[in-house]
């Protein structure tokens, strides 16, 4: 039981660190799975592509184009 709680806390710390790292990047960052589906992004990616983080999570890398080419 203690090991499980420690694992959950460790994961929460890593998730927080992951988000802090993404948000401090000056470049657009997309985290993809093995099938190129978008799992997470930072705010620069939203500015560049014009999608919200929730919209990104419904996309595959093949769906993306620069914001100036969208629509």
Percent strand equals 5-15%
**Unreliable stretches, pLDDT < 50, 5 or more residues?**
none
Termini gap: 52 Å
Q: Give the % helix.
A: 40-55%
Strand order of the largest sheet: 1-2
Q: Give the topology string: H per helix, E per strand.
A: HEEHH
Gross geometry:
globular
Explain what this protein looks like in three dimensions:
With 71 residues, the chain is mostly helical. The protein is built from three helices and two strands. It has helices at 2-23, 43-49, 53-56, and strands at residues 30-32, 38-41. The chain has a two-stranded antiparallel sheet. Strand 1 and strand 2 form a beta hairpin. The termini are far apart. The model has no long low-confidence stretch (mean pLDDT 75).
Topology:
Blueprint: H1 2-23, E1 30-32, E2 38-41, H2 43-49, H3 53-56
Antiparallel strand pairs: 1-2
Describe the structure concisely for a colleague:
With 71 residues, the protein is mostly helical. It contains three helices and two strands.
Write a concise keyword list for the protein shown above.
single chain; 71 residues; mainly alpha; two-stranded antiparallel ribbon; 2 strands; 46% helix; globular
């Amino acid at each position: 039981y203690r090991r499980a709680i420690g694992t959950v806390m460790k994961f929460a710390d890593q998730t927080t660190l992951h988000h802090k790292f993404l948000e401090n990047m000056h470049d657009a960052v997309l985290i993809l799975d093995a099938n190129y589906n978008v799992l997470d992004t930072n705010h620069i990616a939203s500015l560049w592509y014009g999608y919200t983080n929730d919209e990104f999570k419904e996309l595959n890398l093949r769906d993306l184009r620069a914001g100036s080419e969208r629509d």
